[in-house]
Amino acid sequence: MTDATTPTEWVLTISCPDGPGIVSAITGALAARGDNITESQQFGDPTSGLFFLRLQVVSSATREELVAALTPAFEGFGMTWQLDVVGRRMRTLLLVSKAAHCLVDLLYRERSQGMPIDVVGVVGNHPDLADIAAFYGKPFHHIPVTKDTKAEAEDQLRALVEELDVELVVLARYMQILSDQLCRDLAGQVINIHHSFLPSFKGARPYAQAHERGVKLIGATSHYVTGDLDEGPIIEQDVERVDHSRAVADLVAIGEDVERATLARAVRWHAEHRVLLDGRRTVVFR
Amino acid sequence: MTDATTPTEWVLTISCPDGPGIVSAITGALAARGDNITESQQFGDPTSGLFFLRLQVVSSATREELVAALTPAFEGFGMTWQLDVVGRRMRTLLLVSKAAHCLVDLLYRERSQGMPIDVVGVVGNHPDLADIAAFYGKPFHHIPVTKDTKAEAEDQLRALVEELDVELVVLARYMQILSDQLCRDLAGQVINIHHSFLPSFKGARPYAQAHERGVKLIGATSHYVTGDLDEGPIIEQDVERVDHSRAVADLVAIGEDVERATLARAVRWHAEHRVLLDGRRTVVFR
Amino acid sequence: MTDATTPTEWVLTISCPDGPGIVSAITGALAARGDNITESQQFGDPTSGLFFLRLQVVSSATREELVAALTPAFEGFGMTWQLDVVGRRMRTLLLVSKAAHCLVDLLYRERSQGMPIDVVGVVGNHPDLADIAAFYGKPFHHIPVTKDTKAEAEDQLRALVEELDVELVVLARYMQILSDQLCRDLAGQVINIHHSFLPSFKGARPYAQAHERGVKLIGATSHYVTGDLDEGPIIEQDVERVDHSRAVADLVAIGEDVERATLARAVRWHAEHRVLLDGRRTVVFR
Amino acid sequence: MTDATTPTEWVLTISCPDGPGIVSAITGALAARGDNITESQQFGDPTSGLFFLRLQVVSSATREELVAALTPAFEGFGMTWQLDVVGRRMRTLLLVSKAAHCLVDLLYRERSQGMPIDVVGVVGNHPDLADIAAFYGKPFHHIPVTKDTKAEAEDQLRALVEELDVELVVLARYMQILSDQLCRDLAGQVINIHHSFLPSFKGARPYAQAHERGVKLIGATSHYVTGDLDEGPIIEQDVERVDHSRAVADLVAIGEDVERATLARAVRWHAEHRVLLDGRRTVVFR
Description:
The structure is a homotetramer of 286-residue chains.
Chain A: E1 8-17, H1 22-33, E2 36-45, E3 50-59, H2 63-76, E4 80-85, E5 90-96, H3 101-112, E6 117-124, H4 130-135, E7 140-142, H5 150-163, E8 168-171, H6 180-185, E9 190-194, H7 206-213, E10 217-224, E11 234-241, H8 248-271, E12 275-278, E13 281-284
Parallel strand pairs in A: 5-6, 5-8, 6-7, 8-9
Antiparallel strand pairs in A: 1-3, 1-4, 2-3, 9-10, 10-11, 12-13
C-alpha cells in the first residue's frame, strides 16, 4: 500500500497502564530510525490509571518495518495500539431515516471539505433520502424495519458491514435502536447523534421536553453507541441559545444545525484517530 | 418620590389571557396622555394562552395618575401588572455559604456596573465571607444552620426579609435548602444559581457527576426557587467547553466563571423587570 | 392572493422619526378593526432619532383594507413601511463562483427547513456548481466575468433580476465585485457573506491574514452590499475558536461552517422582514 | 528550593529549529533518569520552521541535576528553554488606572482560584483603586503620569520591577502607553488587555467605534506588549453577542466581562508556561 522509498505520514495511537518511560520508548524507537514526529499529544488519566498517546510521524519505513521497530515498546508496556496512514479515508456506512440534514452535511464534507471518510453506502429504513445518496453517487440500501422484521433487518445490515468492509457506522439521525448484540459486535465503531445535551432529556422527543422545561440552551451530543441507549461515551457536544418565543418546531430547526455540526466533528475526529476510549469517557486529542 | 413636573421613565409589565386589543388599550391610554413609549416587547404563548407585555414609557404623570389612566385596561383584560421607575434599585438580600465568587461578583456589579440592586445585607450560614461584605460596606448576618436549628434560622431569615423590606433574595451559592413554606411565601422573589446545566446533574456534586460522565461542556442554571428543588422556572443558562484533561477541581474552577456570569444576568434581568413567569417557564424580555 | 374571509397573518415594518403616539396610532387602527397583534418589536435609536417597528397581525382584511386603515398613521408620522404576508417566500437569486458550501446550505434550508425564500435561479461566473443547482431543480445561468466583459455580464444579471422578478440577491461566496451603479440600483436587496469578522481583515485572502496575525477566533460577517466594499450595514456575525496548530487551509475549512451559518441567519431574517436599515447600521428584530 | 529526595513536578518549555530526534532526545534523557512525564504537548510550525515543546515531569532530581541531564539535548538542538516548578507563583505587578474590573478579578483569582501568580504590588497612575489593593493586602503605588513626568514615572516603574523581582507585568486596563524602550526591556513579560477584537478597532474608544459600525459581536484581546501598539502577539481573544439596542455604555459594560475573562485566561496560561512566542504569533498549549 505504502512504498518504503517515499516517506509516508503515519498516525499512531496507544493506550496502556501509566508509568515512566512510555513516551521515551516510543520516541526513542522512532528517533533511532531517523523518523520525524510532526504531531504528538498525550494524557494520563489519574482516575483510570491509563495513559493515552497519539502521534504523527513521517517515515520512509513500510508498515511492517514500523511495527517491528515499535514492538518492543508495544509489548513492554502492554499497549493497545493502532497504526494508520494520515488522511486515509475510513470506510463508512451512513444509516438514516427521514431527516436529511446530517446526511447532506456528511456527504458534502466528504466531497468538498476533505473529511477523511469514504462513504461506501447509505442505509435507510425509509426510502426518502435515496435521491440525496444518488446525487453524491452513493449506493442506497432500503432496509425497512418493523417489530417483526427487526432481527432480519439487522442481519442484512451486518452482511452489508462485512461485505463492504465497513470500519465506521454513523447513525445520522437513524431512528431505530440497534440490538445489544450488534452494539457489542461493533463496539467503538458506531457513532450516534443524540438531539439533546445529554444527559438531559434522554429518550424520545427531547425538543418537546426541552420546550416544556423552558431551557435557554438546546444542545446535541455525539457519542459511541453501547447497549445502554444514550449512555455511550460522549465524543462531542454543543449548544445553541434559544428563548421563550421559540416553539417546539423552532427548537427542532435550530437543533438541526447543532446536530449536524456536532456529528461532523465527532466523525472527523474519529476518522483521524483522535478519539480514544477511556472506560465510559473519551480522550479527544483535537 | 417622583415629581409630576419632571418626566420619569417608568417600566410596566403585564400578563393576562391573550386576545385582541390588549396592546392598543395600553398604548392608547398612554398616547392620550401624550406619553412616549421608549421600549416595548410582547409575547403571546400559544401553549398557556397567556399574553405578556413589558414597556418603558416617559411620562410626567405621578404614579397615581398613571395607574388611573391604565386601570380601565388593567381591569378590562384581567391583567396582572407591575409598575416601577426605571433604574430604581431593588432591595436585595444575598445568602452565601463559603464560596465567594458569586458574592464578589454581585457586589462589584452593584458598585461599579450600575446593576440596579441595593444589597441591604448579606447572610451567611458560615462566617467566612464577612470580610468581603465589610469591604463593600454591607451588614453581614451570620445565621448558622444545623438540623436542629433550621426552623429557627429560617425565622431569623424571615424576620430579616421583613425588617429590611427585602424584594429579592439571591442564593449566591448558599448551600442550604429552603423549606417548602419559605419557598411558597417568597414565590418569584428568590433566585438560585445551580452549578449544572439543568436538568442534567440535579442534586449534589454536579461537577463530579459531569466528570464521571465525560461531558464536553459544563454549565450553570439560574432559576427561581420553588419547593421542588432544582425544578423552578429557568431564567438563564450558560456553558463552557471542557475536555478530558480536566479534573473535577478544574471543572469546579471553570464552573465558577459560568456560575457568576449566569447568576449576574438573571439578577439584572429580574431587577429590570425583564423576567415574567409563565407557568413552569419564564418569558425573558432581554 | 389573500381572501378577505380567511384570516391572514401579516407582517408590517415601519420606520419614521421618533416621537409620542406612534405605537398607539398603529395598534389603535388595528384594534378598531378587531385584529390581533401576535408579535411586536420596536426600537428607538437615540443616535439617529429614528423609530423602528415590526409587528405581525392576524386580520381578515384584504391588503387594500389594511393599508387604508393604516394610512392615517403612515402619513401622519411620515412612515416608511412594508406590508407582507407572513411566510411568503421571497424571490431570491443566488450568485456563486466555485465554493459550494453556502449554495448547498441555502438550497437545503429552502427545501427542508422552511426558510421563506423561493430560489428562482442560480448564477455562476464559473460553471462548477451547475450540478448542485440541477439536483435542487434550479435553473443555472453561467455568466462568465472577465475584465472586458464585466459591463456586459452585469447587464445580463440585471436583465435576469428584472425578468425573474427578483426581490433578493444573495452573494453566496460570489468572488466578483458588483459595480457601484448596480449596488445603488439594488440597495438593501443584496446580501453578501464576507469571510472575516469585519472590520478585521477587509479585502482579499482574509484567512491568510488571520493566520499571519495569529488570531484565536476566526469569523464571518453577513452584510448588505453598498458601493463601499466590505463596509455595508452588518446583519449578522459569528466566530469560531481556532489555535496555533491550524494552517491556513484549516482556517478556510473551519471558516466555511461559520460562513454558511452566518449567511443563512442573515438571509432568513431578511426574508422574514426582521432587518431594518438605520443608516450605516441595522436593526434586527430576531 | 526543591529537595532532591521528594519528587517535584517540573514544567519544561523548549523551542528550537524543527528536525528529527528532538522529542526523543528530551524524553530519552528523562527516561534514563526514571522520571515520569505527566503532560506533554508539541507543535512544529511549518511557516517559521520552529518546534515547540512543553512537558511536565515528576522527578526527584534537583534543578541542577535535571539541567545537567538535559544539557546535551539543549545544546545539540540549539534549544531555548525554561524550567520551572509546576504551580510556583509568578511574581506579578498589576498596572491599573480607574477601571476596577480586571484588578478585582485577578486579585480574586489569585486568592480563591489558585491562579499561580503572586501579586507583589499594584501600580495606579490614579489613586482610585488603592482601596481594592488594600482589601487584598497588596501594596499600592501611586505613580501619576503626565506628559512632562512620563520618563520619570517609567523610571519609578522600572525601579519597582527590579526591586520587587517582578517576572510579569499585567496592564489591567492601564490607560498609559509604555515607551518603546520599556517594551523592549520587558519583552515577553508584559501582558495587555485590549478592549476590542483586534485587529478591529485599534486605538482609542473601540466601543464607540464598534457601536458606530453596528457590529453584532464585541470582543477583547489579550496580547504581549511590543513597541508596536496593539500589534503584539495575541494570546487569547473572546467575544460577546450584542444587538442594535445596545448603547455605547452597554457595550462598555458587556465588554468588561469579556475583558476580565480574556485577560485572566492569558495571565493564567502565561504563569503556567503555556504560552510560547513564535515570531508575531503565539503557541498556546492549553
